[in-house]
């Protein structure tokens, strides 16, 4: 064990500096993301990264929805670090070490789940845009931020936070349905 080792469950541990696709499975990701609150818990009602990921996936073309579900999957290992903290760390250190760790884990997670990584620029941009739209929707619905102060246009969806049990089940249900539908997705979507 090292200072950078975390326990995945009672039987498995991993060094966060050595991403290992062998320890990744979708149930672990869903369960962990369902228990991590977005915004470091600063919403009036807990709102999970798993529920956020389902929202992001719903805002994407069918061919990218599995990638949308996984866009924050590295947080199952590394935790949810807020964008302002990431910016502060970059400012203080002059490097983006967290982004490097996230990218390494994204590679391992996508490999473990049979998805290509990294995505081509236009596809990555679509996921980023969906993430920003989800952010604006969350700010409107969960933090009661007025529309004029939102960083992007929100979706018409109204967010109702789920329990972690329901968020985990919804995430896994979406993953299964998207996996089954993936064979029918066309590049034109």
Give me the secondary-structure topology.
Blueprint: E1 5-7, E2 13-15, H1 26-35, H2 49-58, H3 65-69, H4 75-78, H5 83-93, H6 97-112, H7 121-142, H8 164-181
Helix pairs in contact: 1-8, 2-7, 2-8
Q: What is the rounded Rg?
A: 16 Å
Query: What is the typical, i.e. mean, pLDDT?
Result: 92
N to C succession of SSEs: EEHHHHHHHH
Enumerate how many helices there are, as a single number.
8
Largest sheet: 2 strands, antiparallel
Give the percentage of residues in beta strands.
Answer: under 5%
The helix content, as a percent range, equals: 40-55%
Spans of at least 5 consecutive residues with low confidence:
183-189
Q: Spatial order of the strands in the main sheet?
A: 1-2
Q: Quick one: overall form?
A: globular
What are the defining features of this structure?
mainly alpha, 51% helix, disordered C terminus, two-stranded antiparallel ribbon, 2 strands, 189 residues, 8 helices
């Amino acid at each position: 064990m090292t200072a950078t080792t975390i326990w995945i469950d009672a039987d498995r541990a991993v060094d966060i500096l050595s991403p290992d696709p062998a320890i990744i499975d979708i149930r672990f990701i869903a369960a962990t993301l369902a228990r991590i609150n977005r915004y470091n818990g600063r919403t009036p009602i807990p709102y999970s990264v798993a529920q956020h990921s389902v929202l992001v996936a719903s805002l994407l073309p069918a061919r990218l929805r599995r990638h949308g579900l996984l866009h924050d999957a590295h947080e199952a290992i590394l935790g949810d670090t807020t964008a302002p903290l990431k910016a502060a760390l970059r400012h203080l250190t002059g490097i983006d070490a967290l982004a490097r760790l996230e990218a390494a884990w994204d590679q391992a997670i996508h490999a473990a789940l049979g998805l290509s990584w990294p995505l081509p620029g236009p596809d990555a941009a679509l996921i980023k845009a969906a993430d920003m739209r989800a952010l604006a929707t969350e700010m409107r619905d969960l933090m009661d931020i007025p529309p004029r102060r939102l960083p992007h246009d929100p979706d018409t969806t109204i967010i109702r936070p789920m329990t972690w049990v329901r968020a985990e089940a919804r995430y896994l249900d979406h993953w299964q349905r998207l996996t089954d539908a993936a064979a029918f997705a066309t590049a034109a979507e």
